[in-house]
Amino acid sequence: MFGKKFVTERLIIREYKNKDLQGFLNVVRQPEIYATTYGIPKNYTMYMAKYWFRMIKKNMHEGTAYEFAVLLRDSKKYIGNVGLINITNEHNHADISYYIDREYMNMGYASEAAREMLRYGFGTYGYNKISGVCMSCNPASRRVMEKIGMSYEGTLRQELFKDGTYYDIDRLSILKSEYYKT
After folding, report:
1. For burial by CB atoms within 10 Å, which of 10, 36, 92, 99 has the most?
2. Nearest to 169 by CA among 65, 95, 82, 67
3. Considering only CA atoms, which of 13, 52, 11, 6 is closest in space to residue 29?
């Protein structure tokens, strides 16, 4: 598993390396990333980043999550993250997760990376279902999931409490049988 790397038309998706720390911090500290995600804390520190890097390696080793750095293929610049998280092997299920640097949003990079994660999850691990969630106020993230073939399952009302406000969360998914039909 370790050393895993995917190459798409415009991206390199690979396991995190310590040299990615600063690029990672530059992206997760962006207000746009914080505002549209619920798993990334405000005021991300280098200490937190180093801890998270250790956690993703541990999670990969244990098979509970696979998160990867997303880099531009031509320049090798770090622009985001994509992964399969919340893996439940007994149910053959995983959730997809992603974010992209604000400078590269709305260019199709999130969809390209997410499409590769579907291929990886269904092809390598044989998951039966891959789901995704996004804040209902983040239509761009929902569009990414729809572009890769996911269907809307429902809205979890006031599921997230962030910065003094309750937010609804939309849930989408795709089944292995649906993935292989397309």
Report:
1. 99
2. 95
3. 52
Q: How far apart are CA 120 and CA 124, in angstroms?
A: 5
Q: Dmax of the chain from CA atoms?
A: 44
Q: Give the helix ranges, DSSP H, for the chain.
A: 21-28, 31-36, 46-62, 109-124, 139-147, 176-181
Distance of alpha carbon 69 from its chain centroid, rounded?
A: 10
Residue 125 class from Cβ within 10 Å (0-12 exposed, 13-18 middle, 19+ buried)? middle
Instruction: Determine the pLDDT at residue 1.
Output: 47
Task: State pTM to two decimals.
Answer: 0.95
Residue 179 has pLDDT above 60, yes or no: yes
Q: How distant, in Å, are the alpha carbons of 44, 136, 144, 152 from that of 108?
A: 26, 20, 8, 20
What pLDDT shows up at residue 182?
66
Cα separations (Å) of 59 from 63, 77, 117?
6, 24, 16
147: nearest Cα among 168, 166, 129, 172:
172
CB 143 within 8 A of CB 110: no
The amino acid that residue 57 corresponds to is K
